[in-house]
Amino acid sequence: MAATAAAVVVRPVTPVQASLWSDAWRRLRRNRLALAGAIYLAFLIVVALVALVHTPYPMAGVAVATPYSGPSAAHWFGADNLGRDVFSRVMVGAQISLTVGIGTQLIILAVGVPIGLAAGYFKGWFDSIVSFFVNVFYGVPDLLVALLLVVLLGHPGLDKIIIAISVTRWMDMTRLVRGQTLALREREFVEAARASGAKPFKILFGHILPNALGPVIVQATFGVPAAILFEAFLSFLGLGVPAPQPSWGSMAADGLSAIRIAPHMVIAPSIALSLTLMAFNFLGDGLRDALDPRSRR
Amino acid sequence: MPTPILQVRDLRTQFAADGGVVKAVDGVSFELYPGESLGIVGESGSGKSMTALSILRLVPDPGRIVSGQVLFRDQDLLQLTGEEIREIRGRDIAMIFQDPQSSLNPVLRTGFQVDEAMLAHGRPKRDARSRTLELLKKVRIPAAESRYKDFPHQLSGGMRQRAMIAMGLANAPAILIADEPTTALDVTVQAQILELLGDLNRELGTAIVMITHNMGVVAGLCSRVLVMYAGEIVEQGPVEQIFENPQHPYTWSLLRSIPRVDALRHERLRSIEGIAPDLLQPPSGCRFHPRCPFRIEKCFHDEPRLQDVAMGQQAACWVMMKRAREEMGADKLIDIRPGAASGVHPGEIA
Amino acid sequence: MAAAAVSSMPAAGASGAKVLLRAENAVKHFPAGLGATVHAVDGVSFEIREGETLGLVGESGCGKSTLARLVTQLLPVTSGKIFFGDVELTKLRGEKLRQYRRQLQMIFQDPFASLDPRMTVGDIIAEPLDNFGVMRGRKRNARVQELLSIVGLNPNFNNRYPHEFSGGQRQRIGIARALALNPRLVVCDEAISALDVSIQAQIVNLLEDLQREFKLTYLFIAHDLSVVRHISDRVMVMYLGKIVEIADSVETYASPKHPYTKALLSAIPVPDPRVQRGRRLVELTGEIPSPIHPPSGCRFHTRCPIARLPTPCAETEPPLEEKRRDHLAACHFSSDV
């Protein structure tokens, strides 16, 4: 046998050793917009973390500046109707937006991934039930559900908002994972794993999930800005985080009545919000291209 | 010797890739004579399909024909305008592909698509339908009248390929290029299609260029064959000679690597060791030398050119099988590792 | 190994040889929507003898891939029985069935789809070992390296990923995985169909060497009868979910007893122009019928050149019976073939 082995030892086609993940990372780094988005988000996270321990002025401190005063060296983004420092409040707002965005996605991942995997792999009655609920939730307007929940859960707060948004947004992820699982379970390498004696748990988490992870990451990345926007919208309607907690949405709402005399009250949180949404979307696009090179063009 | 109907001269087609340029077709020259049936054989990546696509300038992006000439009736197809080459396609030179499913429009009736092929080249609309029916009968589609109205998905794979051939013949072209037309079909259907192509070649005098990886297909249908490896022609000649007395070690090995259905003894297959070359960095010298048992030192750095080895037969090799047989005992060879017969290994090359 | 370059055709597994796997009237039907049923495998009985290579050929849609999955129990049978040795596999469920997978491995058609792209080659090959907790740590890695060199790959490739390899190399990886647990039966489902001609020969030779070395039994499935004949001791021909002929591979060619086998043989081009031009094609009329509505009587009667219609061919289904010693065919008129 040794002779056969020696006779046919052959070289691999490419000399570099690379996993699909490191390949994806290489492609992502080449995408300038995605990279810019990632850098901005890293900066935003730092800002949010700093705001935990320090803001230039207390975010709820009234009359630290002249009410409605515009941007100045002391107050970069000016002051609001109560004379609070808008810059400090935007910093804290970043905390809230990121918590809502990432928090909802974590919940959605925790719910959607296992349910989607199980529904797609085992099919049958479980899948029928899951599909039924997914369709029901798609059927009712998400704003209505969120409003109802916020009211029903009582005592407005960040946790309630995260729950309310998660309840209205879990279906996309579940459906995506279910679809991926349905497709992957028919692939030959999954069949090969079964043939080699793999148990369902190993097949689901060892083969199907790693191969579905690319689209899942992309979906979650696009889910973050959607959740942030939804929170801003709820806060804008006055159903968001309770005062004096500043959310970019409620700050913009507060500023709207004074838009003629103090436009910076609307502009500052709006720009922060827009940049953040854009950054996540560019990053999501970049991740999609990097994780699935076939979908490009 | 009659005048060739098609002359390909030093054709080069390249693809821009991540790590450089893939030379898919690298200096291919050959002639096609009127009414003949020419086979182009090779494995995947040999450049056989790209050669065919280059003739009609159908090379997909990001491929580019970088040089060469394709002379058809004294005009160079590579110099024509887009409008002019479109006129040639389908009228003078038709092409059929491996997958008839994707070549037919799924939302149009099959017969209508054959009509279209004729109308596109200015035939009168009046007799299109009757001529289409005649063509469908010619390619032996049973119940042609009802098939005329069928959509492509209602036809079987074999029927779709027949419909494609009918479309190809719609304007009585001088040349029909068939790119692996039977690879996706079952063997019994393949045999029928091959027989049909052979009959059409004889009856209509249409020259056929058959692109295939299957030596059996060539043996049954073609009168002349080009063998391609890594973007180049390594051997060409009349089919009988190539099969009986191949002079290039690649052709020789390839023929011995195929099990024959009519074999009466179990003989170990003679595989070709190693893997197909990476066209981003093709081997120096002869491109087959990393897999060739008969290589000599010269093969590592000098590229051999096609030279006459027999009447009408040419091969590109520094050794040739005649010498490999006489001096290296090729026929009795058991060890088939690269350099095994000649004893030339890379370590010993200066 | 080299000395075996030319040997006589392997003798047919004598009828006395031990039976490793036996199928009894195995049936697999799939729902096709609107209450229709695809009769993918429709009552097949055969045996695989210890140490032999049983070839299985047929055209697309004949049910050969489904049969491969019934034999390996990747799909449950609709009815019928499959025995592995004395054990009725079709009765086993869950963990008990899983334990039998150690002895029953499979090599898949597509060398690009059958390896998990996110796993290293070492982990892919070791997966069967891991699934049964056979070896761990250094011993496991040593086994992976041993398997790599057995299939002719560099043992140090274990940290690489499948996409770095060519089709032939990937198929070697799939073979190494199938061998990891020292199985007794290996089902090769179109294991070489996706490969280039010169690479096919490499893999066929490798499979032959491994069989000799490890005393393997193969069920070798392909649509290419010339390859199947080359590698097999006995050949089994399927048409529309039924076995139409089982015979020694030399005899299959020399004296087929079913008109479909004869037509299939005549359709395969021989790579020799002088021979090929003298051969006569047994032309089959019409198309392969749909497995949703298989023809009555003999399923081949709609295309058969020697059928006598309507009686008996369109009315009575011919049984698969011994026409000569160890040569089974299902045809009313096998002496006319």
Q: How would you describe this structure in keywords?
A:
heterotrimer; B: 350 residues; alpha/beta; four-stranded antiparallel beta sheet; 13 helices; 12 strands; globular; C: 337 residues; eight-stranded mixed beta sheet; 10 helices; 22% strand; disordered N terminus
Written overview of the protein:
- With 297 residues, chain A is mainly alpha-helical.
- Chain A has a single domain, classed as MetI-like fold, CATH 1.10.3720.10.
- Chain A is elongated and about 75 Å long.
- In chain A, 42% of the residues are buried.
- Chain B is built from 13 helices and 12 strands.
- Chain B has an 8-stranded mixed β-sheet, with helices on both faces.
- In chain B, strand 1 and strand 2 form a beta hairpin.
- The mean pLDDT of chain B is 89.
- Chain C is built from 10 helices and 12 strands.
- In chain C, a hairpin with a 2-residue loop joins strand 9 and strand 10.
- In chain C, helix 5 runs parallel beside helix 6.
- The two termini of chain C are 39 Å apart.
- Chains in contact: A-B, A-C, B-C.
Write the layout of secondary structure elements.
The complex is a heterotrimer of chains A (297), B (350) and C (337).
Chain A: H1 2-8, H2 20-30, H3 32-53, H4 86-122, H5 124-139, H6 142-153, H7 158-185, H8 188-195, H9 200-236, H10 248-256, H11 264-291
Helix pairs in contact in A: 2-11, 3-4, 3-11, 4-5, 4-7, 4-9, 4-11, 5-7, 6-7, 7-9, 8-9, 9-10, 9-11, 10-11
Chain B: E1 6-17, E2 20-32, E3 37-41, H1 48-55, E4 63-72, E5 75-76, H2 82-88, E6 93-96, H3 100-103, H4 110-119, H5 128-138, H6 144-148, H7 157-169, E7 175-179, H8 187-204, E8 207-212, H9 215-221, E9 224-229, E10 232-238, H10 239-244, H11 249-256, H12 297-301, E11 307-310, E12 313-315, H13 320-328
Parallel strand pairs in B: 3-8, 3-9, 6-7, 7-8
Antiparallel strand pairs in B: 1-2, 1-4, 4-5, 9-10, 10-12, 11-12
Helix pairs in contact in B: 4-5, 4-7, 5-7
Chain C: E1 19-31, E2 37-49, E3 53-57, H1 64-71, E4 79-84, E5 87-88, H2 94-100, E6 104-107, H3 121-131, H4 137-150, H5 167-179, E7 185-189, H6 197-214, E8 217-222, H7 225-231, E9 234-239, E10 242-248, H8 249-254, H9 259-267, H10 273-278, E11 321-324, E12 327-329
Parallel strand pairs in C: 3-8, 3-9, 6-7, 7-8
Antiparallel strand pairs in C: 1-2, 1-4, 4-5, 9-10, 10-12, 11-12
